[in-house]
Structure formats: C-alpha cells, structure tokens
Amino acid sequence: MGEMPSVPSNEDAKQPTALLIGLNVVKDAPIYIYDGNGKLINTVTIPFSLRRSASLISSPAFKVGNTYTVKTKGYEKTFTLNEPFTAVR
Fold first, then answer.
1. Which residue, among 25, 28, 27, has the nearest Cα to 77 in the 3D structure?
2. What's the pLDDT tens digit per position in 33-88?
3. How many CA atoms lie within 13 A of 54 on its CB side?
4. N-terminal to C-terminal alpha carbon distance within the chain
5. Which of 27, 28, 58, 77 could form a disulfide with 49 if both were Cys (CB 3.0 to 4.6 A apart)?
C-alpha cells in the first residue's frame, strides 16, 4: 500500500487550508465557498458521496484572519482561518 497523504501544518502550509470535520458530501452536489461578505469564491463538486467526512479545502483567495462559509446540501459552516492550517469542527 502507498503512504497516506499528510495534512499540512502551520509551518508548511503553502496557502491557508481548512480541515472541515463533519462535512456531508452528496455525489455531484455543488459545494459552495463564500467569503465573509457573502461573495462566492469557489464551487466544487465531488463525484462520490461521503457522510460526515473530514475534508481539506483551500483556495488562493483564502487569507488568514478572514471568515468564510461552506455550504452544500444539508451542511453549512462558517469559520475563521485563525492559522495557515485551521481545523473546523
């Protein structure tokens, strides 16, 4: 078996990244990422379903100290990127 991918740390994150714990992913349903002003900054779709997954999200638009919202079918979470790598529960 191959090695498991690692998650970034605050020391080696190349751009701000959030680990969303408990994200429900519905196959082919869009996942929307909004900035603190409600402006859509990214939309992604995943070709499979995951219930209560832990998923990494990142965007070149992410800035440490700013607030973002992730929305998908049955899930909405607002969080602040306090560090380059922020876990969101």
1. 25
2. 999 999 999 998 888 888 888 888 888 899 999 999 999 888 899 999 999 889 88
3. 8
4. 30
5. 27
